[in-house]
Amino acid sequence: MKKIIDLRSDTVTHPTPEMREAMARAEVGDDVYGEDPTINRLEALGAEMVSKEAALFVPTGTMGNQVSIMAWTNRGDEIIVESNAHIFMYEAGGPAVLSGVQVRTVPGTRGAMDPEDVKAAIRPNDLHCPRTSLICLENTHNRSGGCVVPLENMKAIYGPAKEQGLAVHLDGARVFNAAAALGVDVRQITQYTDSVQFCLSKGLCAPVGSLVAGPEDFIDKARKARKILGGGMRQAGVLAAAGIVALEKMTKRLAEDHDKAQKLAKGLAEIPGLDIDMATVQSNMVMVETRGTGMDASEFSALMKRYGVLFNSSTQYKVRMVTHNDVDFDDMDEAIRRVKEALSA
Ligand code: TLP
Predict the structure, then answer these.
(1) Residue having the nearest C-alpha atom to atom 5 of ligand 1
(2) pLDDT tens-digit profile of 183-211?
């Protein structure tokens, strides 16, 4: 039987044998009482890795972002996000529902907002205006195809935000991919944020989980927000154990996924009808424009599903392919071969 090559997301990765082993052996306790030693170890490790005072284990990236917004804002505030940010596009209106805040979007180039536009979007202290309390960044930036937001851009937004007393939160679902792509320690990125959410369950292969990291008083509020959302977990050290392997081991292999994306992109770019902006292939994602094939994104993905290559549509004429630990370099060759076969059939 033909192997299915699943490029829908890096979320499809399975826990590694080492993770399963660690999960089976994990010491656990009731985390709502703060008594799960494995969760405590994961939170301390995560905080240290991104150079923040404290961290909180949450089930998902979405909850990580939402408890962060709940902790930083008051009802009626406004938050600034890039117009294609996950927080704005894919979190089901969470900021409005959970925090009662209004979202102000600023357009970005490959995920990076112009610092001048951000400055201009900060509200004046005026009776008529909502209070701007938070700026959210995203790195790598999902909807731009995994582009890396440059450090200088983050710095140019963070400095003025601090001068104005605003908090900066990073949706760092794939911040370790950003660090690998830039060839820097992740702290170089997180130094320009007050809080960060990063996922253990994407390229890092843990089955579940994200960490939120930031100042201690912020984490206290985020912990309370997590409880409100029903996210206070009990013997979840079995999950945290996989998260520890994710942080200690799997962060070191992400560059390999980026090399796979390069290989895939180069091969697909040579196929007539497919267009790829190679400058945007910066981490583990490839955005492929399908217009030249006469098919839209959903027709093309439906066609390729029949050939055992899975990926999602991103816009009407763009599909997103994501590389990860559960596909190898040979799978990239095979995916390219099947696309050629499907388009010439
Ligand atoms: N992204 C998923 C889908 O929701 C689109 C994916 O397959 O890429 N921030 C960013 C930047 C993300 O890409 C995601 C997940 C999240 C937050 C949310 O994480 P989860 O899925 O754990 O809630």
Answers:
(1) 90
(2) 999 999 999 999 999 999 999 999 999 99
Atom of ligand 1 at shortest range from CA of 138: 11
If you classify domain 5-12+253-344 with CATH, what class do you get?
alpha beta
DSSP string, 128-190: TSPPEEEEEEESSBTTTTSBPPPHHHHHHHHHHHHHTT-EEEEE-TTHHHHHHHHTS-HHHHH
Measured in angstroms, how far is the CA atom of residue 127 from the centroid of ligand 1? 36
Atom 4 of ligand 1 has which residue's CA nearest to it? 90
In the chain, where the domains are located = 5-12+253-344, 17-248
With the most atoms of ligand 1 within 8 angstroms of its CB, the residue from 62, 63, 169, 301 to mutate is 62
Could you tell me the pTM of the whole model? 0.98
CATH value of 17-248 in 3.40.640.10, 3.40.1390.30, 3.40.630.10, 3.40.250.10:
3.40.640.10
* Chain segment 32-79, per-residue pLDDT in tens: 999 999 999 999 999 999 999 999 999 999 999 999 999 999 999 999
Instruction: Give the N- to C-terminal CA distance of the chain in Å, as an integer.
Output: 20
